Amino acid sequence: MENVMTLEQIQEAASAIRSHISHQPEIAMILGSGLGSLADMVENPVLIPYGSIPHFPQSTVQGHSGQFVVGTLNGRQVMIMQGRVHFYEGYSPNEITFPIRVMKLLGIETLVVTNAAGGINRAFNAGELMLIDDHINFLGMAGFHPLRGRNEEELGPRFPDMSQAYDRQLKELTRAKARQLGIPLHEGIYCCLSGPTFETPAELRFLQAMGADAVGMSTAPEVTVARHMNMRVLGISSITNITSLDGEHKASHEEVMAYGKQVAIHLKELLLHLVPEL
Ligand code: HPA
Hints:
Blueprint: H1 7-18, E1 27-31, E2 43-49, E3 67-73, E4 76-82, H2 93-96, H3 98-105, E5 110-119, E6 128-137, H4 138-141, H5 168-181, E7 185-192, H6 201-210, E8 214-216, H7 220-228, E9 232-242, H8 253-274
Parallel strand pairs: 1-4, 1-5, 5-9, 6-7, 7-8
Antiparallel strand pairs: 2-3, 3-4, 5-8, 6-9
Helix pairs in contact: 1-3, 5-8
The structure holds hypoxanthine.
């Protein structure tokens, strides 16, 4: 059932990327829907389209352009994923997380994940940011787990701990930086669903009762795999829409993209100032 990537395929992809870059990247960042413009801040960027990397999954969604942008950001060597692939595109959880495996083999120990998410918490407004305190991997809980299948002991343990999926020190640093810059930053639980449908009002009320503050279609698989390999993770959601618990407001990809662009301004500033301290 699963399409499982092999260690050899991960190594081949890592060597292909290594042949394009002259510096060792230190920090990886994944940019979510509408947030791709953050990559414009990178100095002396080397662009590596996913299509040129062996075994790499190709993004098919509008708003996810599908390339690595490698270069310097505020003095640090970064590797930015401009676009990601999702479960709903037809990829297995193992394929979705292939890029995270490759990052680790390239020597990266810190991962910053961003995403677009629908706000469930009624204190949130569209256009605001949420620091991901923890996640509910609904997809994984339903059996679509990126670690299903043979475990590569060289990469991580069979039964990884997930008690601190999001690094406490990175969260503290982010809170402090947002405060200093005057950027409003909520905090909450991100719930990952498969998509591609937006949620029914009944599903949203269920997620709310379960303790979710925001909902989206990504991130939890990538974070799970990063933690399997003991990478430090920071997660930030852009609240691109407020979900309709009573069915009075229709969700759309256009709204997600439009608010994504608006939130990107704050997110860019926050990440730019965070990077030297990560
Ligand atoms: N639901 C699921 N995923 C999303 C949403 C949403 O409301 N907004 C952005 N991604």
